[in-house]
Design brief:
heterodimer; A: 637 residues; alpha+beta; Methane Monooxygenase Hydroxylase, Chain G, domain 1; 5-stranded antiparallel beta sheet; 19 strands; 37% helix; globular; B: 254 residues; Fumarate Reductase Iron-sulfur Protein, Chain B, domain 2; 2 domains; 5-stranded mixed beta sheet; 9 helices
């Protein structure tokens, strides 16, 4: 099937304005008759639930954490992009649009990206009004910093905790709606199934994580804002509870999964220290503004970094990309770091690390300035590694961080299942094959505050409110299915823990479907994943009961889904016989090692339809056309 | 893998186990073996749990999520101190190198009237949510707000707001307070919003509503012990409590 993103035709500059006018409206008196279920309370979900509640809809919001404020958007550090052009350095909506399309290696939809750039400015205004304490200068004006993949300073920030502050802004807006009675919050509640009635999304089945109760909530539309799936690698920068479960179970109920192979490996994370490790910690990319990446020129040079003289250091990013230098985009910086280590020039345990050195900046600006800019990051680094980065360079290594792929949606953020909307990292829409730094926060809030409030009305206006009741047979069936799965987990009583399976899966994925992929490695993964999945269902051990707080049971469900999803991710990576952005196939590279796209054959979004576990999924294509940015080789030299 | 991991430790844990809100609880003893100094405290607990599961026993339930000290989910009293007593550090960022071989560690849940125990080390912190819902926001609408630079905010005020806004809502301040007071938590939000021009309009109403909610939800009063500041993993200062008191006085005379 050829998919249609339903993008507005005509000049892109006015596309969103014209589209907004064409969308149907729900009149204020009717809004309260519609119930909207919002799953996830991060930037996208929190902003959506608050905005929809404020408009007068009857909203139910769900999160697995004990508070909406703990969604993983909270961990984003560096900043949020907007095309304000406050520094007068040449920025514009057009340039942010252009940089995002180019940064995504020409694998995103133009119209969606334009809209994102256009509403980026409203986001900053909105957050300021909420009381988000963005960094300001002494005159009281908002401050900006630069970020990877851009030559202008368009990133707004709140120390090294921008995600936290933006999320607390959305959370406060949500709290206001809870008090007003328009939003009902369900915390410690995990979505385990999508209820589809007559082809439309009309409910979700959830598990109350405290009591273990499994029940269905019905509504007139479902909004998924449940984040990304890089915990498929086991070790990643995501929170422990982040999973593919909500989107994967929607996928199993008919929603297409688009571009699952596009994952972002972040270049600046603290290297792994041992086998015990449960997660990897990111150090904001903003550090590359003042830190210089280098590796020793000689293989196996294990002198302490401060004793290696200038002439024996290779500032590889500055050498290879003189115009962007240390601010090259993430995929490029990550691969470059891996390259240094693969050549035997890595530093630290196992030689899996490169230096990020602040000595020059400290000399130029003083330690106090560096402390003011990145103090909390240096502190965090010291807690984890026991090293003082004001004195010795930080050691960095790439780690899985973000997923550009996600459920397929059209221009309205609506999936192919009518009534199912997908926002933020959970959808596939704007970042193409690689996301630029400080653009995830922008997308989450754009979708939640400024897109879904308009587009969901267009769907609701065509439906009768309250059409599906809780006693619908589909609801009963969904509850029975989830109960059966729970009982299955508890009855296997095997020998291996859920974590052991997750760790094994992570290893397969990191080695075969990680930063560099080949036909051979992908086929190897596709051989190993089903074997591991089969073993899981025979040999996993989950203790306790279903009707209680049971964290092992929660994890079992998430890992079971990763074991299915991993196969689709590998299949997508194998099918995409080109390199683009974060998807690097070693068979397709330029003589200098850069990703080599194949626009002739692969200039499309790959949306997969579920056909049963272990069965071949069906591929649907949405062709991508570039009318405003010319398809070109991405160069940051 | 790491050069650091050679000298592993054995640690005796005394962990609070409680099956449910109304079940009796008690300290149970466990042995944590082969603990690497580079391990985080929660990773050490993970390994104890792996052994428990394999032995067919119920693993220790504890809250955690981001494991990088920002989500505020983790919540254990370690050797009598919320988050373990390392300055500006959450339990998830506490590393085992701060302990030594042979140590005994006591691990308990947040203990406060406002935080009923759900299971083992997990408590119900909804009372904190209700304080925020009472007034921890500016009543701005989505859209229809002025340009971000339309109202200037001098750097010292922006910085002051940011210092207060660093609160991660973990509740360590409540657990550390002999009165189980939520003053530090509440004052951080009151201070952040009352210093910013965007929050000033509703400052009086907000501080009254949030203080009322604090009292209605089972939190004690503040009697200036400052244990909250000492336990706070983000170093939130008690100066914000003084700010709350000033704002509250102003509101009463309004």
């Amino acid at each position: 099937m050829i998919l249609d993103g339903k993008c507005p035709k005509g000049p892109i500059q006015t596309s969103w304005d014209r589209h907004r006018f064409d969308l149907k409206l729900v009149n204020p008196a009717n809004k309260r008759k519609y119930k909207i279920l919002v799953v996830g309370t991060g930037l996208a979900g929190g902003a959506a639930a608050a905005s929809l509640g404020e408009l007068g809809y009857n909203v139910e919001a769900f999160c697995y954490q004990d508070s909406a404020r703990r969604a993983h958007s909270i961990a984003a550090q560096g900043g949020i992009n907007a095309a304000k052009n406050y520094p007068n350095d040449g920025d514009s909506i057009y340039r942010l649009f252009y940089d995002t399309i180019k940064g995504g290696d020409f694998r995103a939809r133009e119209a969606d990206v334009w809209r994102l750039a256009q509403v980026s400015n409203n986001i900053i205004d909105q957050c300021v009004a909420q009381g988000v304490p963005f960094a300001r200068d002494y005159a009281g004006y908002l401050d900006n910093r630069s970020f990877g993949g851009a030559q202008v300073s368009r990133t707004f920030y709140a120390r090294g905790q921008t995600g936290q502050q933006l999320l607390l802004g959305a959370y406060s807006a949500l709290a206001r709606q809870v008090k007003a009675g328009s939003v009902k919050l369900f915390q410690r509640t995990e979505m385990l199934d999508l209820v589809v009635v007559d082809g439309e999304a009309k409910g979700i089945t959830v598990r109350d994580l405290v009591t273990g109760e499994i029940r269905t909530h019905v509504g007139d539309a479902v909004v998924l804002a449940t984040g990304g799936y890089v915990n498929v690698f086991y070790l990643s920068t995501n929170a422990m509870g982040c999973s593919v479960t909500a989107t994967w179970r929607a996928h199993k109920k008919g929603a297409f999964f688009a571009n699952p192979c596009y994952t972002q490996i972040h270049p600046t994370c603290i290297p792994q220290s041992g086998e015990h490790q449960s997660k990897l910690t990111l150090m904001s990319e903003s550090l590359r503004n003042d830190g210089r990446c280098w590796a020793p020129k000689k293989k196996g040079d294990n002198r302490p970094p401060n004793e290696i003289p200038e002439e024996d250091r290779d500032y590889y990013l500055e050498r290879k990309y003189p115009s962007f230098g240390n601010l090259a985009p993430r995929d490029i910086a990550s691969r470059a770091a891996k390259e240094q280590c693969d050549e035997g020039r890595g530093v630290g345990p196992g030689g899996r690390g490169v230096n990020l050195d602040f000595a020059d900046s400290i000399k130029r600006l003083g330690e106090d300035t560096i402390r003011a800019r990145y103090g909390n990051l240096f502190e965090m680094y010291e807690k984890i590694t026991d090293e003082n980065a004001y004195k010795v360079p930080m050691r960095m290594y790439p780690a899985p961080h973000y997923s550009m792929g996600g459920l397929w949606v059209d221009y309205n953020c609506e999936s192919n299942v009518p009534g199912l909307f997908v926002l933020g990292e959970a959808n596939f829409s704007v970042h193409g094959a690689n996301r630029l730094g400080a653009s995830a926060l922008m997308q989450g809030l754009a979708d939640g505050y400024f897109v879904i409030p308009y587009t969901i009305a267009n769907y609701l206006a065509k439906t009768k409110p309250g059409a599906v009741k809780a006693d619908n047979p589909e609801c009963k069936k969904s509850i029975e299915d989830i109960k059966a799965q729970t009982n299955k987990f508890l009855s296997i009583n095997g020998k291996k823990t859920v974590s052991e399976f997750h760790r094994e899966l992570g290893k397969i994925m990191w080695e075969n479907v990680g930063m560099a992929r080949s036909e051979e490695s992908l086929k190897d993964a596709l051989k190993k994943i089903p074997v591991l999945r089969e073993e899981f269902w025979k040999n996993v051990k989950v203790t306790g009961k279903g009707e209680e707080l049971n964290q092992q049971l929660e994890n079992a469900g998430r890992v079971a889904d990763f074991l299915e999803f991993a196969e689709l991710m590998s299949k997508d990576a194998l099918h995409r016989n080109e390199s683009c952005g974060g998807h690097f196939r070693v068979e397709h590279q330029m003589p200098d090692g850069e990703a080599k796209r194949n626009d002739e054959d692969y200039c499309y979004a790959a949306a997969w339809e579920f056909k049963g576990v272990g069965n071949e999924p069906e591929l649907h294509k949405e062709p991508l056309t570039f009318e405003n940015v010319h398809l070109a080789v991405r160069s940051y030299k | 893998m790491s050069a650091h991991t050679s000298n592993t430790m054995t640690i005796t844990l005394h962990v609070w186990r409680q099956a449910g809100p109304n079940a009796p609880g008690k300290l149970e003893q466990y042995e944590a073996k082969n603990v690497s100094p580079d391990q985080s405290f929660l990773e050490m607990l993970d390994e104890v749990n792996e052994d428990l599961i394999k032995a067919g026993k119920d693993p220790i339930a504890f809250d955690h999520d981001c494991r990088e000290g920002i989500c505020g989910m983790c919540s254990s009293v370690i050797n009598g101190v919320p988050h373990g007593g390392q300055v500006r550090t959450t339990a998830c960022q506490l590393h085992m190198r701060t302990f030594k071989d042979g140590d005994a560690i006591y691990i308990e849940p947040w203990r406060a009237k406002a935080f009923p125990i759900i299971k083992d080390l997990i408590v119900d912190r909804n009372a904190l949510e209700r304080i925020m819902q009472a007034g921890g926001y500016t009543s701005c609408h989505t859209g229809g707000v002025p340009d971000g630079n339309a109202i200037l905010i001098p750097k010292p005020e922006a910085d002051y707001a940011m210092d207060a806004a660093e609160c991660i809502g973990c509740g360590a301040c409540v657990a550390a307070c002999p009165n189980g007071s939520a003053m530090l938590y509440t004052s951080a939000k009151v201070a952040q919003l009352s210093v910013l021009p965007q929050g000033k309009a509703e400052a009086a109403e907000r501080v009254c509503a949030m203080v009322d909610a604090m009292q209605e939800n089972g939190f004690g009063n503040c009697s200036n012990h400052y244990e909250c500041q000492a336990a706070c993993p983000k170093g939130i200062s008690v100066k914000f409590i003084a700010k709350l008191n000033r704002e509250y006085q102003k509101a009463l005379f309004k």
